[in-house]
């Protein structure tokens, strides 16, 4: 798709910044995609321009096959103050022109960009901020300054606070430019070529890893004949072509003074406290060989955000520029992580029953289920709903259940706690591939699901509205915390079964699975099968998870459940709009006493039938024969009613 977009300009009027006032401040920006989609902003880095004329092209992450897809997201690219497009020393009139331009902070940029989003573009909520280098530092500031306005942020080769070593590095190119014979204290009347060329030569050596230089990466596979050619054409020309010297110095000052803990909403420049208060989910991606945004700094910062941020180190010799679109391999690595991670050899496990020439019904697993236990609704007897004599039934295992790709069966480097987060959308895409590419199913008659399988059933008609006819859908921090806090879980790096953690998980989960009346009636005794609540907990809940489940699988699958929101797929969080657009006929069957469980939005396409049971959430499973008979009769009638 075309990436042509005009640069637009927002006029703020008088705008206060860290070093004073900009009388008629301007923020330059471009937009890509449909404003109805979830909004992602992508600010410039040092050296970048919105029009790609700078040293670093700015559209390298935008495109149908890129990390930021304009067909899925509404993407707003912002030019930082001092980059020559937004207000800068080079384009600001007297009396704040050139060396008189005031100092600008990251917080000033965030406030200006927030104004553009809310007052000009009408963005009520921001899905994500993605940034590289200075853009990555800006992403941290967004998360700290507007905690309830955004969901996520991605910092690529950036940091929350500019480190002392980073500041010292920046003194080098700055000194080379400022001390040059043609810079004239910023009062030059023509381009200070000596100063800019010296700046570029000092900077260049820091931008890549030492191994990259050792491997003669600067030759770019024959594009350049020597290091001098590379520095002259890539670095000197890159700054001389598109950059003003005062802009370079002022923007560098913004970078050098970066510290997210210094923003007004936080206290006493306490970095740990500031980072710990961030609500948005963060993806922090330093490069292993970055010489100034070192990965150790990112490790220290992420340690203050154990529940909200994830650290992924880019394994590259390209140093800082690994994050800036410099090579295809690193671009692909970053894309896979930004778009949700990657499974190198993903596997979907499934079973089939019946004749593929008959109408196809999909029956995905729920939390705690395996394919072997997914047969309670499948059979040729009169009581069974999913009859293989009438339907082609495909039971399919969700990712993280231990049969499809999961933390427990995925090899290095995505094994155990390193397994990427999985969404219901990911599962639906994988299942669609199995049906269409492997089984040759051109049209799906119905998706039937219980619990997580029921949530899965909502995603199918939203994602593939013309592919199926019907769908049937028949508390989580507590058990997760119990597992992770146990003495044998070891942050997911356990070498033997973490019994304490799994037993604690089972005990915390159990009281949410049934209705209060069920407990009051001592349903846990199962008509004499168990002699006490303790026996029931130990044999039914602890034993089943210990026998069949891996702890990392349990947490990864729980994360899929916990992050469910079908409206994110296409309607930017508008659930009413999303469900109102569903075409498939739906049968929604919650239990009256379910603690965990939307039909008014489905208007004329869905029917609500409440299971009148004291069994709570498990009423939709196989625990009670009366409940099983009740909902199977309704599902059977729904399937047979054309």
UniProtKB/TrEMBL annotation:
GO terms for molecular function: acyltransferase activity, transferring groups other than amino-acyl groups; hydrolase activity. It comes from the Eukaryota. Keywords: Hydrolase. Residues 67-165 form the AB hydrolase-1 domain. InterPro entries: AB_hydrolase_1, AB_hydrolase_fold, HAT_MetX-like. Belongs to the AB hydrolase superfamily. MetX family. This is Alpha/beta-hydrolase. It comes from Heliocybe sulcata.
